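Input/output pair, single chain:
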Amino acid sequence: MNGRVYDPVLGRFLSADPHVDDPDDSQAFNRYSYVSNNPLSYTDPSGYFKLGDALKIVGSLVIGYFTAGLATPWLTALNLGKFAMAVAQGAAFGFGSSFSGSLLNGGSIGDAFKAGVIGAVQGAAAAGVGQYFNGLTGSKLLIEGGRAVAHGVVGGLAAEAMGGEFRHGFYAAAAGSAAGSIAGAVIGNGSEPWKIAARTTIAAVAGGTASVLGGGKFANGAFTAAFQHLVNHESSYLEDVGETFSGYALGFFEGFSGLSAGDGSMGSTVGDQGRSVGIGIGRAVQFLNLAKGGIALARSLGSRLSASTAAAAARRATITVNAAAGAAAEVRAAEALVAEGYQILGSQVTVRTSQGLRVIDHLVRSPSGQIIAIEVKSGNAVRSAAQLGKDALMGSEGAVIVGKNAPDFLQGTQRVIQTIERRF
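Output:
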């Protein structure tokens, strides 16, 4: 299945993750940990990528789209012109999407408002660009090409405003705009949820791919492209979305709470659907409350475990704690080595000595060019006699580098490698 194997006792993967998904997060450099040591927030079925980040992006985009949809009836009542209406819808989308995205990523309310204002400006500009090109006549190819370039400029400026690079935002927004136009022609128009999702997905994949080719991150490019696409190509369906969501929300409230929200939701099919879902979730909450009582009872029974079972559990807990401490020490060691001018060639690199295999925590190149093995220890941990013997052999007769975590130019070579112990 091409997935990585996880040991629940050690709390670590048995092979290194070849991807560093967030260079600004020190936990991302611990290539044996599960979802950056944050399993309550993320899942990782294959062992390569966290699903939580993708869900946050999708969630913020959906919230932004529904925000614009709910605002549409109010904006319509203001009798705005076609251009002003599009700009206002874009601002509502941008604020809702960026505000919620900041909160979903752990930002404060202040950070969320700042992101929301930047998003509103970006959404208004992107929608204005789209509305302007909608009114042009002439060559379709030239119009869509100009639209893509203009959207690219808006995306690049927004990327700079959020601390990124102009070119990454430009590539993603331009590619997403062009792909959105093509998706509309291939899939067809319509406000059906699956069509909106399909067209937006095509734009997001195009934007993410363009961002990666330009040296940026796929997730950032996909978000920028999907943002631009929803503000422009899907804006004509916002009124339908707003009415549908309002009816569903009112029906859900009635079903979940048992209270009446008035006659607005119960006269429509979506209102009845929302009420049914609300009733189901309400009953699920009741079931969970009963389950809590069962869990409490099970815990009280669990306290009567035999002494041998408790001792085994304590040993597993000690192994897990030690493994976590070792992993954290390796991360701190890597940061310190880089700060001292060392180049990390590979982590958890396997070498073959005349006495057997030895795993090196960090294989580094010193500022003077010497290749050195770094052994990281934490707390009271010490090297075993077998490890000391293999390290001595590495420094005298040398060892063959066989681990796949080593760079290609060292694979299969025999080198004399001195070992330095670093304690954290």
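Strands lie at 6-7, 12-13, 343-353, 356-365, 371-377, 399-401, 414-415, 418-423. Confidence is low (pLDDT under 50) at residues 261-267.
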